[in-house]
Design goal:
This protein is an alpha/beta fold. It is globular and about 50 Å long. A 7-stranded parallel sheet has the order 3-2-1-4-5-6-7, sandwiched between helices. It has one domain (about 5-195, about 225-250): Rossmann fold. It is built from 9 helices and 7 strands.
């Protein structure tokens, strides 16, 4: 029960890593505010948490909207009395919007959308959460990075650049918020079996070849599972990580141990 009594907000928690994290947070004793742009998926996560005996509420929020993210943090406090943890999970890949994902052919509007959600959305949500975290006496922010935060992949310019920036933003936020006892970290997964990863593979001309190639980058020769990432997120959010801030933590099946980060 590492998160017993804490109130956690998880953006983009209708599916994938966000859903798995919200469920794991509740299993570890947290009260969770699930947030997504897909209300059906988001409410499905809430139902799964409640069915397992946990406490959860749903709030629709598009991380591109200042009004939405302000209302999200206020809803957490109104519903559960405080805010202790923000997991900035919401994110997209350019393949969600176009098949032209190579850096020299990527439409500018797709670049802008990816950056607006993946990077500015993290900053926007964190800015809205900090007053409530401060009022609670401190807390934790956990940001979604990627192995794409540390190296390059084909057809990945907007996503990869935004995830590189997440590491820098995490470090700067950790410095700024340390006086308020707010820790800020990010995690960097490799290929995880999520719907977004599935869309990336589906966008490829040779789907089997791409899936095989990505799995082959892992020393542990399989895709990661969202539930495995969720446990790392929960650790970074918990008091067990009380001396950890400003870091970026790989959960990549050993991918970068031999592939390298440069």
């Amino acid at each position: 029960m590492q998160l017993d009594g804490k109130v956690c907000v998880v953006t983009g928690s209708g599916q994938g890593i966000g859903r798995a994290t919200a469920i794991e947070m509740a299993r570890q004793g947290a009260r969770v505010v699930v947030s997504d742009v897909n209300d059906e998926n988001g409410n499905g996560t809430v139902e799964a948490i409640r069915a397992a005996g946990g406490e959860a509420a749903y709030a629709h929020a598009d991380v591109r909207s200042n009004d939405d993210v302000t209302a999200l943090m206020e809803a957490a406090v109104a519903t559960f009395g405080r805010l202790d943890v923000l997991h900035n999970n919401a994110g997209v890949h350019e393949s969600n919007f176009t098949t032209e994902t190579a850096s020299d052919r990527l439409p500018e509007e797709v670049w802008d959308t990816v950056y607006e959600i993946n990077l500015k959305g993290v900053w926007r949500c964190s800015r809205a959460a900090v007053p409530h975290l401060r009022a609670a006496g401190g807390g934790a922010i956990v940001n979604a990075g990627s192995t794409g935060s540390l190296t390059g992949y084909p057809g990945n310019a907007a996503y990869g650049a935004s995830k590189h920036a997440i590491v820098g933003l995490t470090k700067c936020m950790a410095v700024d918020l340390a006086p308020d006892a707010i820790r800020v970290n990010c995690y960097c997964p490799a290929s995880i079996d999520t719907p977004m990863f599935g869309k990336y593979v589906e966008a490829a001309e040779d789907k089997d070849a791409v899936l095989s190639a990505l799995t082959a980058t892992h020393l542990i020769r399989r895709l990661g599972r969202p539930e495995e990432v969720a446990k790392l997120v929960c650790f970074l959010a918990s008091d067990d990580a009380s001396f950890i801030t400003g870091g970026a933590y790989l959960i990549d099946g050993g991918s970068l141990a031999w592939r390298g980060s440069n």
